[in-house]
Design the sequence.
DNA sequence: ACAGAATCCGGCTTATAGACCAACTCATAT
DNA sequence: ATATGAGTTGGTCTATAAGCCGGATTCTGT
């Protein structure tokens, strides 16, 4: 579940997971994934079902009167899309128009899928390269001061 | 698992581990290695499977909203490539175009593989020599201020 | 100089990504 | 109620890339 992949999305905004991750999905009995917005950068996060259960449970239980927490709830929970996933099959995922817009991949026919161990990120190639070479993005959100309640969470 | 090796990479960007390390791999039941970017210098890191499990688990559990942590996650986890050894016992490793570029070995047909005990490093020969003689590299990243959460980690 | 081992090289095989197409569903309008 | 068309889903095919393997070449130690 690691590493960089440049993959295509078809006209219907579908992409398929690289086959090299298949065994990991099967071994961990994952049959759904969740795709949602990244709160920090114009990119998307893809969680395994089990990972998502933990994150969403924890995040939704937090005190929403804190504006930072509420923003995270909106962004992460409010845009999540659950997708049934058959690891023995083609492992295809649909990206909604709204998520494509957020990640600035409306016009693109290729995306970058980055394996981060327990999750994946989806980036527009230019944004990704700029970020990796130390450049900053117009839309990034810097210096979030995290409330104590989420210091131990990893999104 | 120590020492300096100057070895060749072929047209398909593969290299094979010096045979002198083979017994050590077999004895420790390692059947895969992971190759990824070094966060500090234009070079690559090669971890044994078991070592990688520890590092990646710890690193992916950290709070990704911290920009330094997220950069390390991107660099180390997001560029990792897992590689199984050949059934015949030969230990061949493919270096992706992206990793070659990062380590500045795009045009090279030889690399330096440095055994560091529990991991290896891969360098472009000129960079390695310059670094060993105290010279500085144009692209190195100095003085990372590490957050408390990763002070005890060794990459 | 020779023998054995390690390394390098390139062809062959297999698996996969990506594109194309067919079928089905659903919505709308007549 | 039926026909039309758009949107969605799933299947199949093919070029490409990854994995596997054997032989040629180079290296090392005696």
Sequence:
């Amino acid at each position: 579940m690691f590493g960089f992949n440049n993959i295509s999305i078809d006209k219907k905004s579908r992409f398929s997971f690289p086959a090299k991750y298949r065994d990991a999905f099967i071994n961990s009995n994952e049959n759904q994934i969740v795709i949602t917005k990244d709160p920090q950068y114009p990119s998307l996060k893809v969680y395994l079902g089990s990972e998502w259960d933990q994150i969403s449970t924890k995040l939704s239980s937090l005190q929403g009167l804190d504006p930072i927490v509420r923003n995270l709830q909106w962004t992460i929970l409010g845009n999540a899309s659950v997708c049934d996933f058959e690891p023995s099959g083609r492992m295809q995922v649909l990206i909604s128009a709204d998520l494509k817009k957020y990640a600035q991949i409306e016009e693109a026919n290729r995306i970058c899928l980055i394996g981060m161990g327990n999750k994946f990120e989806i980036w527009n190639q230019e944004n990704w390269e700029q970020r990796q070479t130390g450049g900053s993005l117009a839309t990034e959100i810097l210096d979030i001061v995290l409330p104590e309640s989420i210091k131990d969470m990893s999104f």
Observations:
- Residues 7-8, 10-11, 16, 18-20 of chain A lie near DNA strand C (CB under 10 Å from a C1').
